[in-house]
Structures are given as C-alpha cells and as structure tokens.
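Self-study notes.
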Amino acid sequence: MRADSISRIAGLIGFAIVGFYLEEQAPRLIRELLSAELRLWLFPITGALFGILIAPYLTTRPARTLRKILGQTSTQILLAGLIGLVLGLLVAALLAWPLSTLPQPLNQVFPSAGAILCAWLGITIFVARRTEIMSTLRLRFRETERDTSKFTQNGHGILLDTSVIIDGRVYDISKTGFITGPLLVPIFVLNELQQVADSSDVTRRSRGRRGLELLNKLQQEASVPVEVSNMDVDEMSEVDDKLVALAKRLHCPVVTTDYNLNRVAEIQGVTVLNINDLANAVKVACLPGEELELTIIQDGKEIGQGVGYLEDGTMVVVDGGGQHMNKRKNIVVTKVLQTSAGRMLFARLNE
C-alpha cells in the first residue's frame, strides 16, 4: 500500500475522532439547528472527509519533499549541519537550567526558545563555514595518520602495488640500495593479493602465492623497512584508484609494472617508478645495424615474420624469419622500439 493511501486512512480515522469530540463543543446555534443524532453523525463524517483530503499534505508530502531535498544535498553540507545541530543543542542544554530559574512565564518559554535558537544558529554557522571546518578536520586526520605511522613520519616512503609485489624484482632492487625510503603496502593491496592467491584459476593462484612469499621475504630480508598500513580510501572501490588517491594524499611515488596504472597515475600528477622503465634503462644498448645471433621460435603477426627472444627477454621481430623456425640465424637490427611496457627490436636476416 502506498504511503499516501496509508496517510489518508490514518487521517480519516484521526479526524473522525476529532470530529466526534468537537460535537460536544458545538456552538449553541448549531445545536438548535441540528438534532443530537444528526450532529453525532455529521461531525465525525465531516472530520473523516477533511482528514482524507488534507492528511497527505500534513504527513507524506512534507516527508517526500524532505527526502528529495536531502537526496540533492551534498554529504558535506549534511555532515556540517548535523555537527552544528548537535553542538547547538548542547549549548541549549547548558542554558536550560539558568533560564528555568526565571519567573513565570519566562521559565517555560525561554528554555524552548533557546533550544530552537541555538539549534538554528549551530546549523547555520556550520553550513556556512563548512569548507573551512571540513578542511580542518581532514588536516587533523592526516596529521594523526602521520603520527601513528613510521612510514609517514619521514616523508620519503614508496607505495607498492600488487603487480610489482608479484613481479618480485623490487626485492632485488631494494637489496642494491637504490631504494632509500621505506616501502609501504596498503591493506587493500594485501587484500587483493590474498584474493589472487585464493583464486580458483591455477595460474592466478600460483601468482598470488608467489606474491605473498615475496612480500614475506621482502619484510624479512630487505635493506629498507617494509610496512603494511591500514590506511584506506573509503570513497573509492577499485584498488588502482585507491592507490593513486593514497599516493596523492601522502605525496609519495608508486612502484608498479602495470602499464595502465602507470598512465593513470601520471595523468593525476603522481610520480610513478616503473620497474620496466628501470630494466630498459640498464639494458645494454642495442643500436640499428648491430649483428646478433637469434633462435627464431614462433611466427610473427605479419606474413613471413619470425619472433625470437634475447637472453634478457627482449622480443625480436625478424622480417623473413618465419621460414627458419627453430633455427639459430644471424640477424641485423633495423629498429629499436622502447616503451614503458618493455623494449622490442626489429631485425632482418643477415644473408
């Protein structure tokens, strides 16, 4: 049953009862014009009809309008108004006792009027100054986080994402001393790592378990502190979004091997330390015209192309190499393509 219908039925019953009691208070003129039996029926029926008509305007319609207004109002305004209301009522409660000692009838009017006035002032002031108040609350919350975390005390930490933990190369890099700041693993990254380790897919499960083992090894043997933090970003649901937001909040870089996270973080102004970029930077340079030996192990995308890999994992696309599958051939490098996703060489047969 709709709220309007329930309201009309309640109004019918309520106003009919009111009409029944008003019959006893009817003016003398009405008593003289109408008989007692007619008044006994007329007043309740009139009250019931009146209740059917106006009850929704007294109950459900204002409630519906209030819900609509609250739905369109931002959370920041609602929170500021609620805080102002509570503080205003607390002030009114403190003023209630001295106001109740005033002489009649002031001791009955002033406490209620003071409660209404203080509540209105609290809501008005806090809503009007909500931006400054919320900024102060957020600042103090961040300061509390910094005080309770060794990671945030020094301001030189580095966030790790799931992909870089599973990759494992960050452990070897940390042992070299190139990473000087402490490493931070947010709790939502650890939860995602555990979900991967519990996956029904065999490949994903093995990758997740490898990541947990490497993280444990990193905590025990790394030359820099490794901390698992309970800091979270409740307003976001995706792990990558949480990681970028937390990096912006703490003003620290993110270590990753995820190409998409790399691009999204850079767009939002977050410093990214991509291990693939580091690996490409320390590889021995391979210039066009250089001769190499390569075993071609698979076909390329284009007709006649063959694909092989160098010892460091660099993919080499050989034009005309498709006819020499599983053979070791001399090739000449013609082009070098280097991106954050890795390095790729293009070559031709040296005949």
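Second protein, same conventions, sequence then structure:
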Amino acid sequence: MVLTTPKLITTPRPKLSLNIPDGMSRNEFFNSPANLLNLANENGLFRTPEDLLMYRKLIGHSTEFDTSIILDTSRRILDPLGRPVRRDQMHQKQKKVWTQMTQILLNYMLEKYPDPKKHLILVGEASLDSTWPLNKPGVPSIRMIHNHFMVFPMKDIQNAPPADPTDVNLTDSGHNSLFLRHLNDIYREFLEVLDLQILRPIPATECALGSTGFPQGLPAWVLDDDCSKINDQYFWYEYEQILRGFLDFYRTFFTIVATGDELIPASTYFPQQVHEVLLGSNKFLRVARDLREKVIQDPQFANEIRWRPAYKQLLFRDDKGRIIVTISQNSVGNAITELLGIVVNRVEDPEAFAKLEPGLVGRLLEARERLMAANIGEPISAPCWPEGKYVPPKK
C-alpha cells in the first residue's frame, strides 16, 4: 500500500523588480493586463498568431524546467469576462496549436529526462480566472487558460521534508471535496460513457507516486502503450473527451445547486448519460440539494463557490514510466503540483537562483527551438536572452 507522504519543496526565486504604476497595489498589478505585458517583455519566450504566449515563470515551482503557455487575449479582447478561459472556449485553430505546443514540449521533456526514477514530468492545464468567486478579494482580471510544464528531480522530492497532510490545497479543498467524498462512485460511473481506445481507466492508487502517495481519489487513465502514442491525434481526442465528461458532471451538479431544478444543462456533450446516471441518482440529487441549502444558510461558504466549471487536467509520468491523465476540480488556492502531493515554498534567494538560472534558461531555450522548428510562431527576445542565449541580468 502506498503511504501518504506529501512533500514540501523549497525553491529559490530572484528578487522581483516590477514597475508597478502609482496608485495600483501589488495584488492589483499581478491581476492586471500590465502583468501580462511584463510577462511578455521581461520573460516571454515564444508567441503564436493565435495569441498563445510561452514564458519563463520567474516565481516558478521548479528550477530544473518550468514554463507556461497562456492564451493571452488581453490586447485583443478588452472585456475580461469575454476572454476564453477553458479549452472548450477556444476556437478550432487555437485548440490545434495549443495541442501542438503541448505535444512538442512534452516530447522534449520525455527525451531530455527519459528515466522516471530520476525525474518527475508533469503537464498541467488549468482554467482559473473567470471561475474565481466574484466577491473574493483579488479577483483576477487577466482571465486566461494556461498550461504548465514542469520537471522535478526525484531526489529533491524524496529528500524533501513532509508537508502538512491537512493542507487544504492538497488535491482539493472546500466544497470541491464533495466530488471525492460523496460522489466518487457516481462520478466514475458517469465517466464510463467515454469510449476510450488508447487511455484506460485506472485506480489512482495504482499510479500514485511512491514518493508522495498522490494523486488521491481522482479519476485516472493510463496510456498502456509506449509514450509515442502522445503523437497520435486520437490520444488528444480522448484527452478532450475526459474534459467534456468533467464539464457535463460539473455543470449538471451546480445547475441543481443554483436553481434547485433537475435540468440537463445547455450544450451538454452526453445528455443521455446525464439523464440516466446523474439525474437518475437519488444520492447525486441529495448532495446537490444539501449544498444548495448550505449556500443559502452560510454567506461565507457561498462566497467560495465556483459556479462555472473550473478544472486542472494533468498529464504526468508515473514511477513505471507510464503516461497518466487525471482531472480535478480547481480549488481557489491549490497549485498544479499539489495534485501530486508536492507543496512548493518559493522563497526569495537571489544568490541561489543565480547559480541555477543559466541552466534553467538554457533548457527553456532548447525547448523553444522545437517550437521554432515547427514554424507555428515567433521567438521573443527578452533581457536575459536577447539573441537566443542566456545573458545574466544587470545588477
């Protein structure tokens, strides 16, 4: 049996030199289009005509390999509530390039780090900003979908001290736990409607990392064949089907919470399965109504509710070298790494970061060359890589 041992990793970061406009708080800056401009100008790596921006995460989770791709529509769509924040809201060309970039960077990581005993590889896509509770302080205005690409040396995870196992951000927190504690069986039964040929359902306990015991309680699927199947377009079709199943479940549940009515939401992908499995389940209906009553009675709890689908969809390599797919409700505070039991404490330590930065940037630029070779966008010259090579920042 795999033991639950979440780990606390300390990662150094540089001192941030941000030009925050007068009258704007630090929190407001991070949640504004000004931050996106800073990301592109100071840490941008690659941009496509579809508004996809790859950048170096200055406050990163890992100093081995850590980058993100965001759908930056802030300059084109000025209304923050009108921007796509989930993959199902992208237009077809954006989704195609998004998948292509994900596939290219994942292939790079698998080739660069071939041994699952030495490195943990993960790709985590998250919808975040538009689903932030409307009354919660610091509501993000960027509102964008983003994809994380990270690598952790296994020895760092294994040697890290234990994290607090009661940390609410591990896997899920708050009302999201309803999916795991009360609706797990129904959730899995509902997802059986997915006609998957490449991915196979697997208990989370059978793919959990030996170093942390996570993921826990989440639905999981394994790529039984070799990792080259990620280059099969049908793999990404099945990846999309998993998201669609999650969206149907989430929308149906919170439609009942919001209205009290047993309705099949508009734009449902699997209406027959919604009708038979979800609306036909007394337990599903009871849990939704119990939550509805709690929202009515408890204003503080109501302030935490995410009425629109919020998810983190994760691809990672397990201890056996297999590609695992899982999907989670997106809690307000949790990070993508916490789905795998890794809590990252990012501390300001310019000296430690300076020693690691050349190697980190070199690997990011090496990965960027794969995107340039695919001819899907243009490289960005930032202060630390003005001509495609690392240059130490000016002191």
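Instructor comment on the second fold: The chain has a mean pLDDT of 88.
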